[in-house]
Backbone:
């Protein structure tokens, strides 16, 4: 077996050194009746060549969004990942290193994390960010727990226009704690009424921009309302490219920003691994979950970086920790940092402008089709279409023509009959003119 | 000695004591520094070329961003060099030995990276119609089959994103099961030696955590356990092999005892590597166990993540598994995405989309490469290597527990007593010898603990050199060369860092310096 160096002779010699007669002697502590005599009922080892073939066979059974016009979004977006980002994260020193608990030999990971935290703080308009969470949805749940700790209150009011996965993960995470959520219903028109719901027991209000339907919202007034009542405003962003074009949550007065960073540097990979972003104000930093990287100096006075404030974390505080999180999204946060470094101020703004112009172009084409309207009064790179027929059925029909038309809202909100004809459509820099033409033509045909 | 071009071919001897080894650049030969990316920008550069946006009627709802963000502008070669320089400040398993207990730092095969990036796998959107991702769903189902077979368990929840997330999944399933029975139990029992994530997870599920002490032989104290058991105990969380590197010999009894009071047995699967193909947790009475794909099945650690933590479940807990999950019917594979119908008892959703697919691909490739025969050999060689290290060091270091260990060898710091050298100092001196330090001060139940997990990837030659280096360092400590240890590491990219200062005055991000008058910095020019 190519991954294991010992020869049979070496195993014998090592057993002799240990002073046992056989490998079985090393497993003598296992209760006899539970010991496996035979091999597991699984295939035997395979060559690298065969393993690769197996996966090529599986891959061939899927429709790659890169070989089809793709307009899917709803919290995961197709963007071009620069080759430098994917190359660097495959360098041995990043790919195969451990969590940077030994800072003297982990400055590469640590400095990159410090840069990641800075980038996330800058784009969200917040003061500090942590070193990542699992994904946007778990980050949202952790933001709510954090708001409950900060305010010492027990209830979170959740916008109905929050991504349903984020709402569900938050509800799941809170279900056995002393905290609870009040979930509002989705609203396609008008603004949600938060004012009457921000009662003295409310720890936070959770909203999203662009919201699940793609609409951009200014939450400045809501932030003020929250603060007057002693509550926090949690703003969720799951298409971070939007922050290159629009007012940041920090400018609106957000106290915590929970985000999904997949759009920058991280491939779609059928839903994971992604990179959860969590940013807040400096004054709340000791209530934050997850790892934090901080700047310091070494014995020689040279600048260096360490994991810090670990007295919040489970390996020190155990049951009193701010979260049970340990492993985070390290390598994905590195990919994010590299991609964002390549973009810079100029590139990030341009990428955002390009995405918006793509979506506007597509929207204008679609609006010309009879019977179709756009629900949104505003959008960034994704909007909601109202079709004259069931959206899931239309998506299936278009898939059979090799077009990934978008996400039927009913897939995420199945119990709401008002949503049956709604289709979420995203257009990023990866869509070509011919992709858009093919989509518009095919959609008009199947209606 | 000069060659025929008149060029010196041998170094000239110099007295290092008399020349300064400080350099103008701060670099030291191949040790290359890179300032923060924010200190390298110049407005107007770009590292990604893209089409110019079409002029369109803006539909941003009046929310256009007004000011700059403050990101630095760089070109592609600058960014590449920056991160390559950073990478070289890292230790990595590809470059050297990681004897890091509880973390299973093993070889990361590159075929796993290759197949994870195949078109049709790495680029799939999670919300494509399931008719267009039959291969992806088959892959998840196949991995689930391997995990169930390896552990001898009937069900597996695939979506948890890491070990601690898997623990949360398992304990939530336990709580959901009790609540479905109309029971509100309040306590979870956890051995003193447990990972910190265990009590933190139990607390997040609303349970009071009670620690169970260990016996003198490093296993959980059954008498103390029996005393704490009662009808209000929801379950026990036990790592097996435990964090002392020992198999819990009474594990079946522990399972029976907790089942007798109506509780469940959660097994922390961090140490699964030791028992692959030798024993199945399902045969030991386990009700739930997470599997760290980034440990046992070598999806790389990546400097702290991402991981994946699927949780195998017993028949009793399976109905409460989180959504989504893959099902198979006559027309192919499908996803159950809502907690209704067959999933009506599910405790809910834990994560966006369907789980860590990128890690699933890597783990399945790893398993297929090993096969049933290779998996068993992993456990055998891992345990062999740990015992080889134990025997190689046990006249120099004291094992708190006698006898054969599983996949990791545990020592305390008693032989360092009186030397002025601590476990931490010894660990930092290991860095100078070219090793990543072992796990230190964990488990908490052993004074100055040193936990060494060599894994099956390491050759006998690597282990011999490691044992030799450790013996050399221990002799040096015993001989009173304390200052050497207190100053270690001497040869790392940084000396010891001031962690106290970092925590006292947290600097968690770069802030541009205020420009002095008349001087325009790159940042202020961008503003």
Residues:
């Amino acid at each position: 077996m190519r991954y294991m160096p010992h020869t049979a002779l070496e195993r014998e010699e090592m057993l002799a050194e240990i002073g046992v007669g056989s490998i079985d002697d090393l497993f003598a502590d296992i209760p006899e009746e539970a010991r496996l005599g035979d091999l597991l009922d699984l295939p035997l080892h395979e060559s690298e060549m065969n393993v690769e073939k197996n996966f090529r066979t599986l891959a061939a059974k899927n429709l790659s969004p890169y070989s089809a016009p793709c307009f899917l979004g709803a919290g995961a977006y197709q963007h071009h990942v620069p080759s430098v980002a994917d190359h660097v994260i495959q360098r041995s020193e990043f790919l195969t290193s451990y969590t940077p608990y030994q800072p003297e030999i982990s400055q590469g990971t640590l400095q990159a994390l410090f840069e990641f935290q800075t980038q996330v703080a800058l784009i969200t308009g917040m003061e500090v960010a942590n070193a990542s969470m699992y994904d946007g949805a778990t980050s949202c749940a952790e933001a709510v727990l954090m708001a409950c700790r900060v305010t010492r209150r027990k209830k979170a009011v959740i916008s109905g226009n929050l991504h349903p996965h984020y709402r569900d993960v938050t509800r799941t995470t809170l279900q056995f704690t002393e905290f609870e959520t009040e979930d509002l219903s989705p609203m396609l028109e008008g603004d949600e009424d938060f004012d009457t719901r921000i009662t003295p027991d409310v720890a936070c209000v959770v909203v999203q921009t662009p919201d699940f339907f793609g609409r951009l919202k200014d939450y400045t007034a809501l932030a003020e309302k929250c603060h007057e009542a002693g509550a926090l405003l949690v703003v969720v962003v799951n298409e971070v490219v939007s922050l290159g074009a629009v007012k940041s949550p920090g400018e609106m007065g957000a106290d915590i920003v929970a985000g999904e960073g997949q759009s920058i540097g991280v491939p779609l990979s059928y839903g994971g691994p992604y990179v959860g972003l969590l940013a807040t104000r400096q004054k709340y930093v000791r209530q934050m979950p997850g790892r934090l990287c901080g700047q310091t100096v070494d014995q020689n006075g040279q600048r260096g970086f360490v994991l810090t404030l670990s007295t919040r974390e489970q390996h020190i505080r155990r049951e009193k920790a701010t979260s049970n999180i340990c492993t985070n999204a390290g390598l994905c946060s590195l990919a994010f940092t590299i991609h964002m470094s390549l973009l810079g101020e100029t590139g990030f703004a341009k990428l955002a402008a390009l995405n918006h112009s793509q979506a506007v172009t597509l929207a204008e084409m679609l609006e010309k089709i009879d019977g179709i309207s756009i629900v949104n009064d505003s959008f960034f790179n994704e909007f909601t279409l109202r079709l004259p027929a069931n959206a899931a059925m239309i998506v299936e029909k278009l898939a059979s023509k090799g077009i990934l038309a978008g996400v039927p809202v009913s897939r995420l909100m199945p119990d709401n009959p008002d949503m049956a004809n709604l289709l979420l459509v995203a257009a990023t820099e990866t869509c070509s003119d011919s992709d858009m033409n093919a989509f518009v033509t095919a959609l008009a045909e199947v209606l | 000695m000069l060659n025929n071009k008149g060029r010196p071919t041998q170094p000239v001897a110099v007295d290092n004591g008399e020349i300064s080894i400080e350099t103008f650049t701060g670099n030291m030969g191949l040790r290359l520094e890179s300032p923060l990316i924010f200190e390298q920008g110049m407005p107007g550069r770009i590292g990604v070329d893209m089409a110019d946006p079409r002029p369109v009627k803006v539909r941003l709802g009046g929310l256009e961003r007004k000011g700059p963000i403050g990101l630095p502008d760089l070109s592609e070669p600058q960014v590449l060099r920056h991160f390559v320089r950073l990478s070289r400040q890292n230790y990595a398993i590809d470059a050297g030995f990681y004897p890091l207990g509880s973390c299973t730092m093993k070889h990361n095969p590159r075929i796993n990276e290759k197949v994870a990036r195949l078109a049709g796998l790495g680029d799939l959107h999670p919300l494509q119609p399931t008719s267009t991702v039959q291969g992806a769903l088959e892959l998840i189902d196949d991995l689930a089959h391997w995990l169930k077979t390896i552990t001898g368990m009937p069900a597996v929840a695939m979506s948890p994103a890491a070990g601690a997330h898997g623990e949360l999944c398992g304990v939530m399933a336990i709580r959901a099961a009790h609540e479905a029975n109309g029971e509100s139990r309040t306590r979870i029992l956890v051995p003193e030696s447990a990972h910190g994530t265990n009590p933190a997870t139990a607390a997040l599920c609303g349970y009071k955590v009670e620690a169970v002490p260990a016996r003198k032989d490093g296993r959980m104290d059954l008498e103390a356990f029996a005393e704490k058991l009662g009808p209000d105990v929801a379950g026990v969380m036990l790592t097996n092999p435990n964090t002392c590197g020992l198999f819990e010999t009474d594990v079946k009894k522990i399972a029976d005892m907790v089942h007798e009071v109506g509780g469940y047995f959660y097994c922390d699967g961090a140490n699964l590597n030791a028992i692959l193909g030798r024993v199945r947790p399902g045969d030991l009475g386990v009700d739930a166990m997470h599997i760290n794909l980034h440990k046992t099945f070598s999806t790389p650690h990546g400097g702290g993540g991402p991981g994946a933590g699927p949780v195998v479940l017993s028949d009793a807990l399976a109905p409460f598994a989180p959504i989504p999950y893959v099902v198979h019917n006559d027309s192919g594979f499908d996803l159950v995405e809502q907690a209704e119908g067959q999933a009506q008892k599910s405790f809910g959703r834990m994560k966006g989309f369907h789980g860590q697919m990128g890690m699933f691909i890597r783990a399945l490739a790893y398993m297929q490469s090993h096969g049933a025969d290779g998996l068993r050999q992993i456990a055998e060689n891992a345990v062999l290597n740990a015992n080889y290290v134990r025997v190689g060091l046990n006249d120099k270091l004291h094992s708190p527990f006698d006898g054969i260990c599983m996949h990791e060898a545990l020592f305390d710091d008693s032989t360092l007593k009186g030397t002025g050298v601590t476990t931490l100092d010894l660990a930092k001196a290991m860095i100078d010898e070219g090793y990543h330090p072992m796990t230190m001060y964990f488990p908490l139940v052993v004074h100055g603990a040193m936990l060494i997990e060599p894994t099956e990837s390491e050759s006998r030659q690597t282990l011999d050199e490691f044992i030799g280096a450790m013996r050399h360092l221990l002799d040096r400590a015993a001989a009173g060369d304390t200052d050497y240890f207190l100053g270690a590491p001497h040869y790392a990219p940084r000396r010891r860092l001031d962690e106290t200062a970092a925590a006292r005055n947290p600097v968690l991000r770069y802030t541009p310096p205020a420009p002095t008058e008349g001087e325009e910095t790159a940042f202020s020019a961008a503003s």
Observations:
- Residues 520-527 of chain B have pLDDT under 50 and may be disordered.
- The first strand of chain B starts at residue 155 and ends at 157.
